[in-house]
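Invent a record, attention on tokens:
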Amino acid sequence: MPSLRTGGGRAMTSLAGKITSFLVTLKTHSRYPEINRDRAYTHTYRTMRFVVGILGILLPFIFIIGEAYFLKGAVQVRGSLSAYYHSPMQDIFVGGLCVIGFLLATYMSGERKSWDFWVSLIAGIAVLGVVFFPTARPGHPVPACGSNPQPSGCSFVEQALGEHQTEVIHAVCAIVFILCLAIMSFLFAISEVQAESERTEDRPGLFRKQYLFWTHSACALIILAAGAWAFWGAQIGPLKPLYLGEVGAILAFGASWLLSAFNRTAPNRPGSAPPPSVTALGPPPAKGAVVPS
């Protein structure tokens, strides 16, 4: 009997070893050595930033195309992007903005002492506020949300807080979000300024890449101008000023965001020291040499 148990245990161990070896060949986890693993994660990070940037730029068009062709509705542009919450595109609106909000709130979490982290964190929280505290229903139908029995089209937040109060919170979150987008673009521009201690013979000037500084700065100004247009601008054809301002701000920030994602993993702050080069550290020790601690 003991021999049977021992044989069964060996068979199970052998089977487990074969399964484990098979799973290893499937490369179910990273097989990169350490020096290449960092590069792979950097590429992944840049890809995530690129995808979210493209998503933000395309959302206004996705709302129109999706409602018209996939949901068989009329081709129409609503009074604001937020109004798509009360439309057949509600799920896309909530899902898309939640993805953008959570990424903005977390993508700089490894550098919590930087302005970039705090501004992007506030922007992420603000856009989540835009989602979960929706704008009022188009036309402000009566009775308003918060009434009993519950009117149709009201979210649980609108029913709990009242439609007007929820709309006020939504407007505050939207304003904070647009302001943070402008500040983030300005921070991207500042990251192109070289401190005196960083200037070298190869890069003696004030800027790392001057065209990026001016492009990010222009995007920041466009975002602010678009935000102002949303409140005080004129309607152009069927496009209301609020819609034009929101779309203009998002497109300008999307361009700034993608430029930043293409040119570096994360925005550098002036005064940040570059990593030591191999030459500065000297040649690697010979095999078997004793390295002093």
